[in-house]
């Protein structure tokens, strides 16, 4: 691990602090301000919709201005959008909150590329470990995010406004750390606009499974996580319990980062992703077994670990699908599919948990888990067939 990777790991942690804080409070703030109860998670959805809409712009800024300048733009947007969120809470303007979280989506789309930037800083043999290690930085978000949300709840006269303002400080610290990072040089100017058409890249089996595994793995995790604060509120559990569950959920998401890269190198990408699918299934079984604190805690921890195996594996698999000169369009497409899936799962979580309940929400999540498992099996059989010929 060189200094640049450690700094990138810290930036990932601060990025996840922003995300976890948003997830912890946006649904509850939305529930208190939304015109209709089922619209509670629309502000959560706004964050990922903004990310989806920003993927093209982020690809352009990454290509035109380079990694560092584009990441700096994302952090400036993060500061402005956090202040907009705080103002919307003060004025109890639900739709301004939604717009503010959509603006914040630009930062989300930018920072999602930290993991790819990490892979570019090392030799090919160390890419899986670099991705895994940088993602482990999200552990900081596991501790800081829920606690920032809990402390910011009553920091100002309006509940949770203080948490949004605190995120400005998180972005400023990120700007400071980013100033010391030296990124890998971009592809040669002559190659930047070269490469295969995007449709040709996307037709590859490895790209299809990387996109499905990463997007659906993230979608299932988000479907359950976005609904958890509301479900726990309905079950009369205190916000301190919500913060605890989210803290252990994010620990589950990022603590495996210290060994997931080693696991991929040892057993392979597809077996690691398969373990993620099995953990998602176990999470659903436990979530359906009861609605006490321990069921929420264990199931959310397991879905976090399952997400780590699926998402890290999908990121490593995606590296096989494109050449250096194709990175911006390929990474943009992968993030676009991810954000669209997150948008649907964010909206669906609010609708399902407020109209149909926690149980039906968990049964519905079996569908994307099954699709992920089928896609991984299909690619494994396809690769075995190619080796046999």
Radius of gyration: 20 Å
The number of helical elements comes to 18
Mean pLDDT: 87
Largest sheet: none
CATH architecture: Up-down Bundle
| Contiguous uncertain segments of 5+ residues | none
Output the structural class.
mainly alpha
* CATH class assignment: Mainly Alpha
Q: How many E-type strands? A: 0
Distance between the termini: 39 Å
Total count of domains: 1
Q: Give the CATH H-level superfamily.
A: MFS general substrate transporter like domains
Notes on the structure:
- By secondary structure, this protein is an all-alpha fold.
- It has one domain (3-182, 195-388): Growth Hormone, Chain: A, CATH 1.20.1250.
- The chain is 80% helix and 0% strand.
- The chain contains 18 helices and no strands.
- It has helices at 3-33, 42-65, 67-90, 94-111, 114-119, 127-136, 139-152, 161-178, 189-192, 198-202, 205-234, 239-254, 260-267, 269-287, 293-318, 327-355, 358-364, 366-388.
- Helix 1 runs antiparallel to helix 4, helix 6 (127-136) runs antiparallel to helix 13 (260-267) and helix 7 runs antiparallel to helix 8.
- The radius of gyration is 20 Å and the shape is globular.
- The model has no long low-confidence stretch (mean pLDDT 87).
Question: What keywords describe this structure?
Answer:
389 residues, Growth Hormone, Chain: A, 0% strand
Topology:
Elements: H1 3-33, H2 42-65, H3 67-90, H4 94-111, H5 114-119, H6 127-136, H7 139-152, H8 161-178, H9 189-192, H10 198-202, H11 205-234, H12 239-254, H13 260-267, H14 269-287, H15 293-318, H16 327-355, H17 358-364, H18 366-388
Helix pairs in contact: 1-4, 1-6, 1-7, 1-8, 1-11, 2-3, 2-4, 2-16, 3-4, 3-8, 6-13, 6-15, 7-8, 7-12, 11-12, 11-14, 11-15, 11-16, 11-18, 12-15, 13-14, 14-15, 14-18, 16-17
